[in-house]
Amino acid sequence: MLDPIPWLIVLPPAWASLAFLLGPGRGGRLAIIGLTLQLALAFMLAGQLLTDGARVYAVGGWGAPLGIDLAADGLSALMLLLTQTVALALAIYARAYFAGGHGGPAAWFWPLTGFLLAAMNALFLSADLFNLYVTLELLGLAAVGLVAAGGGGTQVAAALRYLLVSLVASGAYLLGVALIYATYGTVSIATLTPLIDAQAPLAVWLAAGLMALAMMVKTALFPFHFWLPPAHGSAPAPVSALLSALVIKASFYLLLRLWLGGFEALGAVIAWLPGVLGAAAIIWGSIQAIRASRLKTLVAYSTVAQIGYLFLIFPLLAGGGLAYQAGAMQIVSHGLAKAAMFAAVGVLMRATGRDTVDSLAGVAGRLPLTLFAFGLAGVTLMGLPPSGGFLAKWLLIDAALEQGQWGWAAVVIAGGLLAAAYVFRVLRQAFLLAPPATHFEAVPRRMEWVAFGLAAASVLLGLRGMELIALLGVGVAT
Amino acid sequence: MSAGLIYALTGVLLFVMGAAGVVLLDHLLRKILAFNLLGSGAFLVMVGLAQRGGGVDPVPHAMVLTGIVVSVAATALALALARRLLAVDADPEQD
Known about the structure:
Strand order of the largest sheet of chain A: 1-2
Structural class of chain A: mainly alpha
Distance between the termini of chain A: 30 Å
Number of strands of chain A: 2
Number of helices of chain B: 3
Number of domains of chain B: 1
Order of helices and strands of chain B: HHH
Largest sheet of chain B: none
Strand content of chain A: under 5%
CATH architecture of chain B: Orthogonal Bundle
Order of helices and strands of chain A: HHEEHHHHHHHHHHHHHHHHH
Oligomer: heterodimer
Shape of chain A: globular
Distance between the termini of chain B: 43 Å
């Protein structure tokens, strides 16, 4: 029977290389075919995991330690499903966005997107610390390439800053891997898990600190978020959507993987620290989003805020409740909602020809579908029922109350109110009457429908929560 | 103090110098060179600590080779972006 694990890693670089050979701006159709196959493979893998449980795949028939092992469990399958779904929708969006030379000279969007997906799929299936390092670097390089693909001065400057931040973080992670290997003589997460405990030598504590810091920088947790708004705010809309919805989740996934894979014994001492930083991110990111004058900066700062929720789970993981499931649900619902929001913003900017919130007047009458998509994505970010965001935040509050840690629950509720403030700021402006002379560009309907589809998925996700939690349970040691 | 430990401590020193360089230096080319210093530091720690118990452990050597390939690619991308930045915009406020 066909094994989806190697194909999920082989397919994206295959179509990316073909797209590169076809030449600048070509390969969109190829990408959509490839992504459709990948989505089918991800569903197939999830189905296999649900019936047979978590499993390991030895690349080329050579098992670890001589070869490289890949591993798939519920969390990796969930990440793979989210990645292929969002990427396929955005590929359809991007074909319309870049059609006819519109949207700037993004000549190598398709090959770079393929390499980005290859790196992400490999990351979600990696079973050892060093392989994770390599995939992390590949992901960073492809993401930087996408930010710079527009070619303008601000874009290249943002890309360069992103690259340097990403490289220093990867370097810190690699130093951590070196220290772990020197102590235990292995980099396999499965082998390391039982070895690490609170009596670990100083080198391991140092390694854990370096690796955690590196992942916080790459995930743009407050106060390391400084690189995110310029990078996500200056790229073309499909690129911003890919970066905000998926790329930062990859480094968070790695952190969660390490935390669950043995480092929890070390992390328990400072679990409050990521929680406090996450709470600060929610407040600070939301306030900056409320104050932003540019539409894309607003959405980028909203990402900074939503990342904060992910880090609130760390102080709650050890106790009762479903903090782990809340984190995974937040990853998926924010991934769908933020892709939808950036896609909708891309449509609005194309139609008005400008990028400020103030220029949105009159949009409600001309682009109701897109504005509805923006609003639906906002519903998820605010955490209103029945959205996936509601489920994530409700599980988070539930876990916090069950453990008597009231403070985290208060932060979640305050964050929801602040999110409402910046979402309604955009909607209010859009419902104002436009000055009579305002001219609206025609926008391909396909772009509007993709934004709407992603937003609707993020809201309806809340109704399929049980299935996702069942998938997440595959391979979790209890 | 064993030779391996001296190499590893030198590596940590290089790493810290590199990290400080990337953050503190203004010139773009110096930042890129500092990143290379940082990477070399991490590689030195890896190789230095790999020679325990008399024998040489080949696994970290293979890892460092992979790491060098990655860091060459990253340096190339950084240099290409720096050249591009210089070409599109000679504006000094873009750093």
